[in-house]
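Q: Focus on the chain.
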Amino acid sequence: MRDEGSGFKYQMEAGYAIWTFQGRQLHKQQKEKLYVVQWRPHPPSMLNAKDQADIRKNIKKFSKKYDALDDQEKDTARTTFKADRDRRTNAFLDILDRINENNERNAEENGWEAAICEWRENQVWEKVETSIEEDLDAQEELIQ
């Protein structure tokens, strides 16, 4: 809020928003010192007035069609991402398996097996029980 000396206060909001042709907002960005935004003009339509009116009349049908295409693209992207993630996870697990096999092969030479057995024998576990009491509901009644 700014006060220009006249007692008038106003809030300055500058930025831009990007919308789909279906009226959903895709992105909104606030910019502090935004002075000018230019957008290319729409080219003349390749549809005649009758076709444009038909599209406006049946916009929900067209919207469903394009939403279905969007969903299909999202599913494809998700499947590709999941396959890549699974491939990378399996490669990582293979590396871990090779490291474990190497450790098992060399455990006796390095003395790791004896150290692990000693560590397991010296483990002391303490059992701690904790209870938490909480009042869920309380009602007061006047008894006469």
Q: What stands out?
A: The chain has one domain: 11-121. The two ends are 59 Å apart (CA to CA). The helical segments are 49-57, 59-110, 112-121.
